[in-house]
Amino acid sequence: MNQPHSTGKVYLVGAGPGAADLITVRGARLLQQADIVLYDALVTPDMLALCAQAEQISVGKRSGQRSAAQSHINTLLVESAQRAAIVVRLKGGDPMLFGRADEELNALEAAGIDYEIVPGITTALAAAASTRQPLTKRGIARSVALFTSSTAPDEAEETRIPDCDTLVQYMGGREAMLTAERMLSRGWSPDLPVMLVENCSRSDEVIRRVTLQQLAQEPVSATGPVLVMMGEAMRQRINAAR
Amino acid sequence: MNQPHSTGKVYLVGAGPGAADLITVRGARLLQQADIVLYDALVTPDMLALCAQAEQISVGKRSGQRSAAQSHINTLLVESAQRAAIVVRLKGGDPMLFGRADEELNALEAAGIDYEIVPGITTALAAAASTRQPLTKRGIARSVALFTSSTAPDEAEETRIPDCDTLVQYMGGREAMLTAERMLSRGWSPDLPVMLVENCSRSDEVIRRVTLQQLAQEPVSATGPVLVMMGEAMRQRINAAR
Prior knowledge:
Two copies of one chain form a homodimer. Chain A is α/β, with parallel strands linked by helices. Chain A folds into two domains: 115 residues, Tetrapyrrole methylase, N-terminal domain (Cobalt-precorrin-4 Transmethylase, domain 1, 3-Layer(aba) Sandwich); 112 residues, Tetrapyrrole methylase, C-terminal domain (Methyltransferase, Cobalt-precorrin-4 Transmethylase, Domain 2, 2-Layer Sandwich), CATH 3.30.950.10. The first copy, chain A, is 26% helix and 23% strand. A five-stranded parallel sheet of chain A has the order 3-2-4-1-5, with helices on both faces. Chain A has a five-stranded mixed sheet with strand order 6-7-10-8-9. In chain A, helix 3 packs across helix 4. The N and C termini of chain A lie far apart (59 Å). Chains A and B meet through helix 1, helix 4, helix 5 and strand 6 of A and helix 1, helix 4, helix 5 and strand 6 of B. Strand 6 of chain A pairs antiparallel with strand 6 of chain B.
């Protein structure tokens, strides 16, 4: 029933790693203007306080309740744009990296709904800042791999170990042990420095420094999302406090 | 002569890709409070308008004048913290990725100066937003390599081609042809989709869509910094406008 000219616009906005002031200025302004905000479970209450005026809809996949299927999120997005002018789809981290953006963009395009994407701070960069460990280092590291494991049936069963100087595994809590085992078997040094960052940028952030050998031997105990950063670039500087 | 308690604090702040509202809320607030801002050539005048009250010092390596050596930047950083309370080192993109942060952090730590790092939107994510092409895609791409070539004498001469699903080459203007040639010789498809993004997020942004074959055959003509994104995830969606 809605004519194209009467539909709203959807903004896919990266919330960043968690801290409310690590969203972009553009993203914060859109939250303040939004009529409807559909948000992930990784989005913090502090962040949602920026859009107190909006109708807030949780579509989180980690909430206690049954998770919203992606097709349901797609339908909600289209329906929201048909009844409101400014719809924000607020995604943890950056929308275009490990965010299932492709499926949401396809749905919006098929429905002829206008949209715009606002990038967010991805956790790897926030974790580099928190740990004070640059991901690249002159003469040591000039390539960085961002990757994740998957248990989805349509993905390859094995986690490939990328051939880069610095490796960053997202959602690496359970999978990091296996990654470390594979890296050791492929000749990476047991002494390779590893940083584990749980709940990056939040008040309950936890940082641990281990070696690749230790990572292979002990399961990572964590309740929140864990980012695993591996490589020579992670080696502690001589005067560093942490 | 300065006692530790009398020195200021240095904030390494990511400016993001260029647009003034793609800095984080935290970064923008620090710019407004800064006494001194040392900024890169990639930082835009719009961004510097956020810190009109501050003493602004250009340490850009791309300016028309002779570029500031890294050791000179390090000295300036330390001296600035010895005469001002809030010093912002404003770096294009994110400070911890291709930003020579390691050298600046070493200098600050050696001088006993307190610092904090504020992440920024790295160009790869802003380019994914501009081009509307997610870097990862379910069943297609779940690893992303961020890399750069180097002509520095202490770096390996050859650009390694990372083994990831999506490849993003920073400062890829001149080097991208060579990268494409090497990828073709290693069996990547000539038809592989490639997005070229020049002056990402700025008013003079230019987006071009080519194939790996075309990238290998024609030099990229550009005046500004070019980001090159390669991989099946870059394939145009069926209903996409661009």
